Amino acid sequence: MNRAGAHGRPVAGDVLRLASVSKVYDKTGIPVTALKSVNLSLAPGTFTAIMGPSGSGKSTLLHCASGLDQPSSGEVYIAGQQMTFGNETELTRFRRGRIGFVFQQFNLLPSLTVRQNITLPSRLEGKRVDRQRLEAVVERVDLLHRLDHHPAQLSGGEQQRVAIARALVSNPKIIFADEPTGALDTHRAAEVLDLFDQAVREFGQTVIMVTHDPIAASHADLVLFLVDGQIVDEMARPNPATVAEEMARLGEEVARRHARSES
Ligand SMILES: Nc1ncnc2c1ncn2[C@@H]1O[C@H](COP(=O)(O)OP(=O)(O)OP(=O)(O)O)[C@@H](O)[C@H]1O
After folding, report:
1. Is any ligand 1 atom within 6 A of the Cβ of residue 180?
2. What does the pLDDT look like over 85-106, one tens digit per residue?
3. What InterPro entries does UniProt report for this protein, alphabetically (predicted)?
4. Structural domains of the chain sorted by starting position, each given as residue range(s) with its CATH number in brackets
């Protein structure tokens, strides 16, 4: 069980806590339950991967935990502060400074330089960018020589490193990464995963990442496995072979379950 255990008991100092978070999509009149009373707690300075078969609720979990979407019920806490799902302005304010994002498609602004992209969230907040932090982060992602370039002049891997620097520079409580290596070749993917490792070890960052890739997941301290909207298993000290095996096992279990419900 993850740190909160089956009952979602709070653990002092958690960076992320989900208490009985459920999500039902009901726009079309046919309700789809994507998350079923999920409890989860993450300690600071940890790297967690979320895996599961297609449609198991990984993206929904990431979106509800990061305030990109609103749970149907349950509570989300970031560093002890409850996320209030009032209006978009309130949520944006809550996320700023607390939450960093890294997406599969990088989401950089093409008209801005690398430096401007990295510092944009702080500038939107009206905060001065800490020069020392900026330098340390840019050096760590090895982009010092590219600060005045535009995203179109960079490779995919370099663009993702800009996105990671952007997420790191404001020193958020937690970084949510959605398939961050999905658009990269193996070599670039490894570089990006090493950066997450270093962000956790050197900067004490907390990272939670959705991935389909057992190799990417094996960089995490802990892998959580989702099936039908529930965390059904977890694996500490994962390696690519054990993660792939577990995914195969869960895939077979889901296929059997669906075959039974159809017969
Ligand atoms: N906006 C929506 N409206 C209705 N149903 C949705 C919506 N978004 C997701 N779902 C459903 O919720 C369930 C979980 O979806 P989710 O995208 O979270 O899964 P996932 O594990 O991230 O899938 P994948 O690995 O294929 O990206 C699925 O059954 C999906 O069809």
Report:
1. no
2. 778 888 888 888 899 999 998 9
3. AAA+_ATPase, ABC_transporter-like_ATP-bd, ABC_transporter-like_CS, ABC_transpr_LolD-like, MacB-like_ATP-bd, P-loop_NTPase
4. 16-262 (3.40.50.300)
* pLDDT tops 70 at residue 227: yes
**Would you state the structure tokens that stand for residue 242, as one six-digit string?**
């054990």
Ligand 1 mean position, distance from CA 167 (Å): 25
* Ligand 1 atom with least separation from CA of 62: 18
Output the pTM of the full model: 0.90
Q: Using CA positions, which residue lies closest to atom 18 of ligand 1?
A: 57
Backbone phi, psi, residue 87, to 5° = -105, 175
Q: Would the CB of 26 count as within 6 Å of ligand 1? A: no
Mean pLDDT of 246-261: 88
Q: Is the CB of 32 under 6 A from ligand 1?
A: yes
Region label for 228, one of left (φ > 0), alpha (ψ between -120 and 50) or beta (otherwise): left
Q: How far is CA 184 from the centre of its chain?
A: 17
Q: Which ligand 1 atom is at minimum distance from the Cα of 23?
A: 12
